[in-house]
Amino acid sequence: MKPEAPTPDEGADSGRRAWLGVAAAGLAGAMLAPGVRLIEVAQAATPGAGADARVRWGMLIDTTKCASGCSDCVTACQTENGLPAPTRSTDVQWIRKVDIKEIKTGRQASLPVMCQHCAEPPCVDVCPTGASFKRADGIVLVDRHTCIGCRYCMMACPYKARSFVHEPVTEQKPEVPRGKGCVEGCTLCVHRIDRGDKTTACAEACSKAGHGAIVFGDLNDATSDIARRVRDLQSRPLRADLKLDPGVRYQGL
Amino acid sequence: MRLRLVLILSCVAALSAHASEQSGRTPQPVIEKARAGSQCIAAPDVMRRTHMTLLQHQRDATVHGGIRGAKASLRGCIDCHAGAQTHSVVKASGDFCVSCHSYAAVKIDCFECHSGSKAAAR
């Protein structure tokens, strides 16, 4: 996805962010000495700011644009996170495609379902060790260092969004550590977000395929594309009756 | 009964004989030099004693707080200390982490989930 230039109506903050992005990109290429780049020195000295509590990351999925046979988002997720393609029902699955049909009218829809990154996550409520947690920016994650693999969170999740790793894992991606005996699920590409990227692997693949059914962004930023769409168009969370306030919303369901 | 006593005594004698010539019997860890031109975050004696504490403290800040690129990071260790041949800290028995840990008989759990290979080598 091409980075967008800031529009004049965006706040001073986003303008500054864009400038910093450009500045960082320029610095990244600057070599101090052979093999030592300025960005490495900067990274060693100052750690990243971390998850921002003013941000609420979310996704808006337009089911009218989501194509029934397409599973590009699922493939992109597997590639990004180093997940093997599932061959058995017990294999891990962070995102899946669901086809639904209203029996009375025959209307069909196709949609991806992944961790809905609830504001009131039941997986966090039931976790006995505190391994299942919500980050300040609304991303629900599993801390694999403290996960004991009890799978209570899998039982608690109404979206069946989490999987258990049954087999030993090798050849993990350096930025996505994962292993046997832990529960895991969609991380909203947290390693990309912390890097400063503005999109997830699934959203990127969806727009690359020409569907553009997944919009990722900051729900709290009134000027963001997702906030504008959520405000203007009718969308709803899955199982709204549970009042979990998910960060993922669906349009055209 | 007497036979067992003799056996035990001979074992003890054999062990004490070996203890005196220990340097030849115990394989010393091979410590491969870090990537040329890199500087470790602390002195070698500090790192040898406290690397596990530094990493454990940092992992919570990273996982829960989303703070990346801090001073102590496992990726940082791997990037400098990955073996020249294997591009990994755990693949071969002579690689940086493995050689010391097998000498000290301390199991490393890190690499059951984390990749021990350098990012560029993948």
Would you write up a description of this structure?
The complex is a heterodimer of chains A (253) and B (122). Chain A is α+β, with helices and mostly antiparallel strands. Chain A folds into two domains: 12-45; 57-251, Alpha-Beta Plaits. In chain A, 27% of the residues lie in helices and 18% in strands. In chain A, the strands form five sheets. Chain A has a four-stranded mixed beta sheet. In chain A, a hairpin with a 5-residue loop joins strand 6 (132-134) and strand 7. In chain A, helix 3 crosses helix 7 (201-208). Chain A is globular, with a radius of gyration of 19 Å. In chain A, 34% of the residues are buried. Chain B has 122 residues and is mainly alpha-helical. Chain B has one domain (29-121). Chain B is 54% helix and 0% strand. Chain B has helices at residues 2-20, 22-25, 44-65, 74-81, 96-104, 110-113. Chain B is globular and about 50 Å long. The N and C termini of chain B lie far apart (61 Å). The chains are: A alpha+beta (253), B mainly alpha (122). Chain A binds chain B through residues 33-36, 43-44, 46-51, 133, 135-137, 141, 143-145, 168-169, 171-175, 177-180, 182, 190, 193-195, and chain B through 37, 41, 59-61, 63-71, 75-76, 78, 112-115, 117, 119, 122.
What's the short version?
Chain A contains eight helices and twelve strands. Chain A is an alpha+beta fold and 253 residues long.
